[in-house]
Design brief:
heterodimer, A: Alpha-Beta Plaits, 9-stranded mixed beta sheet, 11 strands, 37% strand, elongated, B: alpha/beta, Rossmann fold, 34% helix
């Protein structure tokens, strides 16, 4: 196989939301939905090399099934510069109604992949009475819970993955957790822990709606919002 | 009014919730109709729920659904939505919480629709039809429905013998539906406008549409050897006495299941024979160039381009080869335009070329050249199943395949030339070897071979022939490598066998099916012969084929069996892990029937349950083909010589071209 010359990339870093029907598809399906919308929009997206070229897109962090988002980030590399406003309007015209690009900026080809810089995420969790108990979890030195990993159920301490719990009102909180490829806390694991550690009602936990509201990277020891 | 509001929690509790939410690009949203439904609880438009009796991922891969959805929604007085069978976890949830089955577009309960239409592609989906009607809160039996219930209709290839399911449908559409579905919608529109006065009258009006069969306008007559008679007009086998009372009667007469001896009209105006509909000009019929693109991954996740209908070949086992006659092609020009539009409108990177035998399409080169040119630089490709392997095909496969050389597929169907002549499979061992020599020379090393066990006249010698052919192919691979002076890789040869199921409207429609023991004996014999590590042998489950023959050749007595099966919890028979063969067999027995009732050799002068349906191909032609099969005589394809099958009655396509 011949080495392919690296193609210059003009990247659109876009912030998108998802809600409704589109919240119930998996991450791979979400990626495919974006790919097809960008193909329909006839934008000059770059493709990966090799036997099975795919449109090159980098999502900051996979979105679990059932989770809405108000501020997820995707990098879309193009072969030529594209005006952000044109990008937004063309892609939004092709996306299903429950997916929408809010904003986009042109950035130079990032040195580090978007995925690799994610360090933390905010989730707004709306559930009956959650605001009255959730912040108590911050007083614990350890929060032991179980999660599924590679088909096995394992016991883990998630305390240091919980960065903050911000109570908005009795029925909603904003949870800040470690996120990314090295350390990551899924909101459903947090909810399980909440039930076991502060006796939060399991039934109410099942009714919780979860919305990712922000993603952060680590910039000289401080968390800074991405895009 | 039944608008379903399914909770986040409920969706999160089932597998693949994306199946149940809709919201895909290109789904049809008629906002004014929706507003009217939401604000007033009704609308003047004909509401149609188009149902596919399997899960979303399978249903959304179905082309018929996409076509008819578009046809219906092209009418401004119709709003067509989609519904699929919920998977078992969702079924349980819906029952538990009393949530009716709903459509994806507006989340309306099925019982709220004017038309509930099913497309039936395979017999094993029958119990899922009952599941969907039941969850949709629609009476299962046509006779129990009233004016406030939807008109339940169906179409699709298996409906040519709908008798086993006929009690559950109000009307059945024979043949291609693009035109007749619009005629049905028009009749229902008038019915709705008039305030739905009489269900009987609307069925009468539907029966006037060519190709529409109203099962309740007929009753089947069964007799035992002594000529005693009983009539079947509904799911429960009852005798109607002269004074109008109805008496339950046993189905079995003196221990022997009676046979159908006729079909009696109950409605004088109903036609004696229902002839299937076909589309005469495929270039000028609506074909969806903006199909719905699922968000949730589906089984065949690509766009489709149908290039022609029918098949010139006439393989004697193949139902599709007869029921879709005559052969009608679309022009390469139309197809190129449509293919380009589809690729653009969907964002798919793969366009599947669809037909029964792509190599027989006369404009294949022009079409593939045109599409590949248009797709240049767009990272889009074609997929071409059912190609006959020759130089052109290999060249084409090289061009379209973005990945490594994929496997080659051959369907010799039978292991010896004798048996291939019996089934009229116009392919010789020399053909196969010549194709493979080309392919091996070109660097291919993966070959899949498909065969059937239990074909009429088959002997153990024919079964052995399958193994011999596979071994010859293995040898050919190494010989070719030696000739080319290259180091041979390992060839990968896969032999797959399925069980032959005699189907209506084929020359073998009267043939018996092999019994379980025969099938198992043949499978194990073949397994013992295929021991090479380069050859892999796959075999299908025998029992599902035994049940399929019952449904395929069955009569009206099976309605009761299917209903009882559904009521005892049987659904998703097409799914191996859900299929319960033993339960079905005991239900047959309970009703005085058996596998043999439908798998036996039928007399050629017997009344067949599907005799009142015409697909154009005449019964006497099928009989002459059956005789030729036993003489091991082949029939040339439609382009070589017209065999006079009867499909000329439609006066289009190949039938006109070759005269």
């Amino acid at each position: 196989m011949t080495m392919q010359k690296h193609q210059k990339q003009y990247v659109q870093r876009a912030v998108f939301t998802r809600k409704g029907a589109l919240s119930y598809i998996g991450h791979l399906d979400l990626m495919r939905t974006f790919e097809r919308a960008i193909r329909r929009a006839e934008l000059p997206i770059l493709y990966s090399q090799g036997y099975n070229p795919r449109p090159m897109m980098v999502f900051a962090l996979p979105l679990g099934v059932g989770i809405h988002t108000e501020g997820d980030v995707v990098d879309v590399p193009m072969s030529v510069p594209v005006d952000p406003d044109e990008f937004i309007s063309k892609v939004n015209a092709e996306l299903p109604v429950d997916l929408k690009i809010l904003s986009s900026i042109s950035i130079p080809e990032p040195k580090d992949s978007l995925m690799s810089i994610v360090a933390a995420a905010d989730y707004r969790i709306e559930a009956n009475g959650i605001g009255t108990v959730a912040s108590k979890i911050l007083d614990f030195e350890e929060v032991i819970t179980t999660k599924k990993s590679k088909g096995k159920i394992i016991t883990v301490d998630i305390r240091d993955l919980i960065l903050d719990v911000n109570t908005i009102d009795d029925d909603s909180i904003v949870l800040k957790v470690a996120a990314g490829s090295s350390k990551n806390l899924r909101p459903d694991v947090f909810m399980n822990a909440l039930c076991s550690s502060v006796n939060y009602d399991k039934e109410s936990a099942l009714d919780a709606t979860v919305t990712r509201t922000a993603l952060y990277c680590n910039c000289e020891g401080k968390l800074v919002g991405i895009a | 009014m039944g608008i379903v509001n399914i909770s986040h929690r409920d969706l999160m509790s089932v597998e693949s919730p994306g199946r149940y939410v809709g919201g895909e690009p290109n789904q049809c949203i008629k906002q004014e109709v929706i507003d009217s439904i939401v604000n007033t609880g009704s609308c003047k438009e004909v509401r149609t729920a188009f149902c596919f009796p399997d899960v979303y991922e399978i249903g959304m891969s179905n082309l018929a659904m996409q076509i008819l959805y578009n046809c219906l929604n092209s009418l401004d007085y119709v709003y067509c939505e989609r519904a699929f069978a919920p998977w078992l976890d969702m079924c349980n949830l819906m029952r538990e919480k009393n949530i009716p089955l709903y459509t994806l577009e507006t989340k309306s309960a099925l019982f709220d629709f004017d038309i509930v239409a099913f497309t039936l592609g395979y017999e094993m989906c029958y119990t899922n039809v009952l599941l969907m009607l039941d969850l949709g809160k629609i009476p299962l039996l046509s006779k129990d429905r009233t004016d406030k219930d939807p008109i339940v209709i169906c179409g699709g290839p298996v409906t040519y013998n709908i008798e086993p399911m006929c009690d559950f449908f109000d009307a059945v559409m024979m043949g291609e539906g693009e035109e007749s579905i619009l005629e049905v919608a028009e009749v229902i529109k008038k019915y709705k406008d008039s305030g739905k006065q009489s269900r009987k009258e609307v069925l009468k009006a539907l029966s006037k549409i060519e190709g529409v069969y109203i099962p309740s306008f007929y009753e089947a007559v069964f007799s035992d050897k002594e000529g005693e008679k009983t009539y079947y007009t509904e799911a429960y086998s009852r005798i109607k006495k002269e004074d109008g009372t109805v008496e339950e009667v046993p189905v079995t007469f003196k221990g022997v299941a009676p046979v159908q001896t006729g079909l009696r009209k109950l409605e004088p105006e109903a036609p004696d024979v229902i002839t299937k509909r076909i589309i005469k000009d495929l270039d000028n019929v609506l074909y969806p160039t903006d199909p719905i693109v699922p968000n949730n991954g589906i089984v065949h996740d690509r766009a489709y381009l149908e290039i022609f209908r029918g098949c010139i070949r006439g393989c004697r086992f193949c139902q599709a080869g007869f029921i879709y006659r005559p052969v009608r092609e679309k022009s390469p020009d139309t197809l190129c335009k449509q293919g380009i539009a589809i690729e653009h409108n969907t964002g798919y990177d793969e366009l599947g070329i669809l037909s029964l035998s792509s190599s027989d399409y006369t404009g294949l080169k022009e079409l593939t050249d045109g599409l590949l040119d248009a797709f240049e630089g767009r990272h889009s490709s074609l997929s071409l199943p059912s190609l006959r392997i020759d130089n052109f095909a290999l060249d084409l496969m090289e061009k379209v395949s973005s990945t490594r050389k994929s496997g080659l597929t051959f369907a010799p169907e039978a292991g010896t030339q004798r048996l291939r002549d019996v089934i009229n499979k116009g392919i010789t061992e020399e053909d196969i070897m010549a194709s493979l020599k080309l392919a091996f020379t070109g660097g291919w090393n993966t070959v899949k071979l498909y065969f059937m066990l239990g074909l009429p006249t088959e002997t153990m010698e024919d079964v052995e022939g399958i193994a011999l052919l596979a071994r010859k192919i293995e040898q050919l691979y190494f010989d070719t490598a030696r000739e080319l002076g290259i180091k041979a890789r390992k060839p990968e040869i896969t032999v797959s066998t399925s069980m032959y199921i005699p189907k209506p409207f084929t020359p073998f429609q009267w043939e018996r099916q092999n019994c379980k023991e025969e099938f198992l004996k043949k499978q194990s014999y073949l397994r013992s012969l295929l021991k090479s590590k380069n050859i892999k042998y796959n075999w299908h489950d025998v029992e599902s084929s035994l049940w399929e023959v019952v449904l395929a050749r069955g009569d009206r007595r099976l309605n009761k069996v299917l209903l009882e099966g559904y009521q005892s919890g049987l659904t998703y028979d097409a799914w191996d892990d859900q299929f319960k063969f033993d339960t079905w067999m005991s239900l047959l027995e309970k009703n005085g029937l058996s596998w043999e009732t439908y798998a036996r050799n039928y007399d050629t002068d017997e009344v067949l349950p599907w005799d009142h349906i015409s697909v154009g191909v005449r019964k006497d032609f099928l009989l002459s083909e059956k005789k030729k099969a036993y003489d091991e005589t082949v029939t040339p394809n439609c382009r070589v010589k017209c065999s006079g099958c009867g499909a000329t009655c439609f006066k289009v396509g190949e039938c006109v071209a070759s005269r």
